[in-house]
Sequence to fold (273 residues):
Amino acid sequence: MLRDITLGQYYQADSVIHRLDPRVKLAATVLFIVSLFIVDNFVGYIIAAIFLACMIKISGVPFRYMIKGMKSIVFLLVIAVVFNLFLTPGEAVLSVWKLKITKEGIRIAVMMAIRLVFLIIGSSLMTLTTTPNNLTDGMEKMMSPLKIFHVPVHEVAMMMSIALRFIPILLEETDKIMKAQIARGADFESGNLIKKAKAMVPLLVPLFISAFRRANDLAMAMEARCYRGGEHRTKMKPLVYHRRDRIGYLIIFAYMAVSVCFGRILKIPFLNI
Fold:
């Protein structure tokens, strides 16, 4: 399960998506997520699915690799669907004891599930096609106007980059600790929810200790190399927009226009559900 989490990992490939400026991919990801919450019918989600499928195909990232990352949110997905099914008021379709499944609840539950799935896949596509260094540079450039308000832009971008970089490292560390404890007789699978939660305590303690140790080692290494972020720090590969980046902006803006038009504004009776 832990190896199935793809967020924060980078997939090496030679594609147009990989070569795009990180600012384009950040803007596209944000606008794609916004579009998922703007549309209120299934036509908008069909358009989002087509757009996402095209981007995955162009990126060269295997679709199975993208789907593998969905296993980590199955529990959250089930909770969201169940809560919306049984707690949304409206026209009853099925009654189970004192609970009832409504027509409105089914619609909202399906839309919520689609949103979560597309959100995770879209975010994973950005991290899979962008190196942590490029992601840091892109975030710093995009947030540079906030310097007017004395926001430590470089430090914020660096923290987000380090957090993304540490996700696969901590997952690998967790997997090693689990295998070591299972070899010594630990049981993480059997028992009820409370027993499983108690069994996780011996796993979390060494994991936190390892995480703090890694953070301390990283801080000391940066201090030893006199690392200082800020205005006077140069970059080996400055970000420069190319023709493909401008085309990328045009494509994402065109997608937003079509998505909002058919998913929010226009109401076609036989298409809008």
The mean pLDDT is 82. The beta strands are 92-96, 99-102. The CA atoms of residues 178 and 211 lie 15 Å apart. The longest helix spans residues 153-183.
